[in-house]
Design a protein that fits this description.
Blueprint: H1 30-46, E1 73-81, H2 85-92, H3 96-111, E2 116-126, H4 131-148, E3 151-159, E4 169-180, E5 195-200, H5 209-219, E6 227-228, E7 233-234, H6 235-239, H7 247-255, E8 262-265, H8 270-274, E9 283-288, H9 296-305, H10 309-315, E10 320-326, H11 331-340, E11 346-353, E12 358-361
Parallel strand pairs: 2-3, 9-12
Antiparallel strand pairs: 1-4, 2-4, 5-10, 5-11, 6-7, 8-10, 9-11
Helix pairs in contact: 1-4, 3-4
Length: about 375
Amino acid sequence: MRVAQIPGDQKGQRVNEPHAWTYREAGVDIDAATEGLNRVKPLLKKTFNSRVLTDIGSFGGLFDASFPELSSPVLVSSCDGVGTKLKLAFQTGIHHTVGADLVNHCINDILVQGAVPLFFLDYFATGRMSPDVVSEVIRGMANACLENGVCLIGGETAEMPGMYADGEYDLAGFVVGVADRSRLILGDRIQPGDRVLALPSTGLHTNGYSLAQKIAFEVAGKRPDTFEPALGETIGEALMRVHRCYLEVIRPMLAEDTPIHGLAHITGGGLSDNVPRILPDGCHAVLDVTTWTTPKLFELLVDWGNVPARERYRAFNMGVGFVIVVPEAAVESTCARLRDSGEEPWELGRIEAGAPGVTLVGVD
């Protein structure tokens, strides 16, 4: 047995007495995690509605699963993270935005199938718990849930010493939504002649950060706090822009019977890999990359890193965050509906007969 050497006193106190180890001395501070959660508990409870049947801290989150307004309810779920964008959060000390990124990304992923989110859960793991950091991350998640009418009903906060470097953590999110079976959007109605509309991104969202950080901080020699005149902000601020959620603009269209044949969230893999995920057999997407002005941040990254044309549309979203496929006859009305919501949609391309895949017009 390994023992701590405890000097004896003049009264003959024993030496070599075993040290009474605590969980905190092993690197796990339960009180720190509790403090971080307590800071945001009031905000978390604001995300609750009458369908949440448990309080914060329960072993499982309970949610009333009755859907009388739907004839055949289907639950739609998704799980995701924010990738190496976390590394930039560690460098900048900005943590609330990645919490919002996580929620928005997960919501977008079920929205493409016509589902509206019901509740959200998170997983936060770190080597050494910081109440300030964990409360900021959860605060970002809670605010995003409030903005989108989603209940944050539970999660896990894990402290695992030795698994993560000091100041680092990992993050994952889980969302559950619902759609009526008759209104699911699975891409099976897409057909040749349909048109592809696009909605802008707010930046890199949560994909392409391994390449972006390699280019910006190693190749170009920038720092997160480097002010870039072409952007009007620091590189770190530009890269930390929140991954936007498209629920507010798409949800009304789902309820108004807009003839949507397909939706795609442009995440990892860009246009090249995400649009084919919704294409049925016999349909091929032809997308014109000259139909929009590439945001300056992407132009800088492509220029600094000499990124090949085809690679840039696969590694980055290049300014396209969401894609909508509609019949040709519905293009004008759909764009008008989107503009009424404050969006700036544009026609990105069309669906032609062929094997599922994407042809990028304007790419050398």
